[in-house]
Amino acid sequence: MLLVLERFIGVLLVLVAVCMAVHGQRVKVRDEVTGYLGQEVILQCIFNPGADSSIKVSQVTWVKSVNGKKVSIAVYHPTHGPSYPQEGTTGRFSFQAPTLKDASLVIRPLKMGDEGTYTCEFATYPNGNEEAETKLVLLAVPKNSAQAVPVTTNYTETTVATCISADGRPPSQITWQSSLTGNVSTSQINNTDGTVTVVSQYNIVPSSQADGQSVTCVINHKTSKEPFRIPVTLSVQYPPEVTIEGYDDNWYISRSQADLKCIAKGNPPPTNFHWSSTDGPLPSTVEVINNLLVVKMVDSLVNTSFICQVTNAVGTSSSQLKVLVRGSPNNSGAGATGGIIGGIIATVVVIAVVVTVVLICKQQRKNQTARDNLDGPPAYKPPPPKLKLQSTEDDKPLDTGTEVLLKPVLLEPSSMVENSNGGHLKYQEVPMTEDCMDFQRTSNPSMDDDYLEQINPIYNELSYPATVSYQDDKEFVMSRAMYV
Question: What's the predicted TM-score (pTM) here?
Fold first, then answer.
């Protein structure tokens, strides 16, 4: 009997839950709404009875859960109008367009205390209250900044950069990008308005090599789709690092213009250079110009160790260089230098010779090609010869329709053809009458002959000798240039 009762109660609870779910579907809200601190947010709530026209709505109420208790914050009655028990009529709450079907609530400006769970309730008849819950989540856009922390070189791990993401909600996530070896320490500060400030510190053992290096603070927050990046240039202060340059191990007696230069770097920059020697005051032949030591004339007094002392705001550092004065110039270094210069000159000469030989070969091949083209046939095609026929008195008229065959006559290169003036002809032109039956011999050379002769003298060798006479029969005479 007890088992049957438990099953009955279980079924009843399921039916009640189903009924509540069906009723809740009539009230439309968003499961979660996001708002930004100091701005405005709208909590939508719509009642949709569907096809059931028997449902009557008498009142709409917004309730917020505070410490486990439900507190009424906004009420709308069709007769008495809207009411806001917590804020009054001039508070931060207001209905967007109050009706018995639309109870959307406006909150502005948002405070951190507004975050929480809200319930929209419709008092209906005959079903009673129908409600739905919506969760309001507040975000706050953080204020991001990063800066270097000036430090002095030491052997203890020290903070060299700080990155701050202030007044954000939820808290920001801060990381660092750097080529240096360092550690990160992060802390959070909970503000009174519910926001959170995140402070991240980048720590290294500061050295002169870290000065001027760049590290990047990377900030991720829910309000931004992309990470916020802030590059930071480190500032590590260190005393001057000093070196002396200019000594070539070839200082000899009576040498002039031998210089030494004091090179120093530091943070902050060096402000004072001081030259001295291990033997006391500087020789009279030495002149100091800031960081430059100029030896006007090398003598035995210069055979000493020179000291350059440099000072900045952090400290003082120095460097020492020993100079050896020789009795005569050191030619070993000059010989090596001369060998290098000689090698360079020899290389340049070899390259010039190779280039010259290549150019000469190319020019010779070009000249040979030009001669081959001159000895061979002309590169252009001469104009075709005109028809030359001779007629005699014994020739009979040609009957209409009779075919006339033209026979070419091949002349020997040694043969010549004379014109009426005794000149040599290259080839002959034969004018033709309108009926193509009258043929005349042209004694003078044509303009084409002169033109060809001017263009290429090779046609002079193709002239026909005068020993050859024209044949009496009708024959075709062709210039020798056509056989080239």
Answer: 0.57
